[in-house]
Amino acid sequence: MSGRDTCIDPDLYESVFDASGDGLVLADRTSTIIRANRRFLRMTRYGQTEVEGVMQWSQITGGGDLAALAVTGTAPAIREMRLQRKDGSFIDAAVTVRTIPDRGLFIVSILDITGKKQVAQALHRRDVILEAISTMAGRFLAAPAWEEEIVRALRSLCTATEVHRVYLFENITDPETGETLMKGRYEWDREGHGGEITTPWLKGLSYQKAGVGEWEIDLRAGKTVFASISDAEETEKQNMEALGVQSVVIVPIHVGGRWWGFIGFDETRQGRHWTEVEIDTLGAAAGIIGSAIHRQETEEAMLAYITESALRLKNPVALLRENIESIYDDIREGSVPKEEILAQIRVQIAAAGQIAENLRELNASIAEGRREIPEAFRIFLRR
Question: How far is 269 from 247, CA to CA, in rounded Å?
Fold first, then answer.
């Protein structure tokens, strides 16, 4: 500087090299790493003696020549790469390679961007899931029965979430013990297999006996359950190992205020980190399915009410009509005295009043007996 040579203390240089916030690597022309700073070692989880003078750059990148990656102009060439750690896991990194021509060396700067990549991937998956949910909602609204669309919905969710398997379970009650059991209804997997679940032991499985009693408590309370085999309880871990599952997300489905069942997402390839954004989106999918089931149950309840009302009223109304027709014939023929005709009419008026009262009582009893009928209809029926 200012025409004078400047000398940097080697110890100071070493301190700066090691204290850098980025991973730094010095490699020779054969791409052998001859120096690595502490940040790089923490990133890759290797020890210093396992790297320096021993490891090739290609060993952590699965290939690649530093000379081909080196900056050739004045602008830095930043490349995104995946680096493999000692334990086999990967990190996403932004890598810049510069040459030191007079020494025949390369200096590599590595910035860990795994967190940013995960956020970007999570947001992308959220958008894909939301698109699948939007399509799913439209199909459920158009379908006369939710069962007609559920397999297609599970297939869309399986593709959007990129998991191995998606499935739907409904709660049933053990007629002998009153215990809540899970009943497998439908599923879809990444290989394109799916439909109704026919496995006998999944048609009435106890949460307690399955080793997931805590799930029942959380799901009933509306909480989403996440489990990873790496930190699962022993019984839960055994179940996951038996099913070949690395991680699972279980989202409760509530219908008209009651806990109906759940939708599950299994990942079998590797442990997966689910962000809050993704889990919230899965909750929206469960909400759409719950709404479709509730709509169908409400429509079926109203149809049952109408059918029951019609059956109970058919005979009394038919009898009233026959009696009035008989009175009409008597008046037309003139064979019955006027006083007797009037008496018959008064009897039929009373009968009509009794039918109206019976209808009101019928409405009230049906409204009380069918809790799934909306409150607005319930108030109307009681009047």
Answer: 9
